Amino acid sequence: MARKALVAICASAGLLWSTAFIGPFAFAGSVMVPGIGGDFRLQVTSFESRRFDSVIRQQYDFSCGSAAIASLLSFHYEDQVTEHDVFIEMLALADEDKVRQEGFSMLDMKHYLEARGYQADGFRMPLTGLKEKVRLPTIVLLNIDGFQHFVLIKGISDDEVLVGDPARGLKVYSYAQFSEYWNGTAFVIRSHLQQGRDAFLGEGHWPQVARAPIQKDLGGPSLGHTLPYWPSTREW
């Protein structure tokens, strides 16, 4: 056990040394680490890419809605879809002219999910209600510096919210921070209830990378501009 620990420490030290002297022969996503028996290649992952381990990154300025749906289905309901697939299928069910002007709406999301056999709806509720009553992965619309942006709530603790942001990956917000951007509207899948609740992450399962600082500002052109068209205002 002690020898394994020593090897791990040496490997870590070698990694720190090698990352400072990565030469032109280093492969993308890997570094050469000097070892006792010779150099070996170690696969490494950046903080940026780790933020998207369980979040599908949006590829276009206006695709945060389709990326949020793709993340919801792929990582919480074991229904593997791509952002592109969701975008194309949701567009086929929507008013294309309206989408071109305003982006996708929550009503468009509802129609797409129902076509795939899910029951989905929108409602208003405070964070405490989402945590104590709903307990499901939830798509919400944030207003960040004037930009309307869909994100996915992946978990809620007593005082923090774990968000899967299609533009920035995993991020933890305090209740106060999150409430600055959110107006209380939420969108969930009502069917497949047990599956959704099993996939709603408790605080003990939150990745540490979600707490790492994000370099870029919250506002900016990388955020989607999707506007909501609310399907209903009924409470949960």
TrEMBL record:
GO cellular-component term (any): membrane
Domain Peptidase C39 per the UniProt entry, residue ranges: 58-189
Gene Ontology biological-process annotations: proteolysis
Stored Pfam families: Peptidase_C39
GO molecular function, one term: ATP binding
Highest rank taxon of the organism: Bacteria
InterPro entries the record matches: Peptidase_C39
Protein name in UniProt: Peptidase C39
Organism of this sequence: Marinobacter halophilus
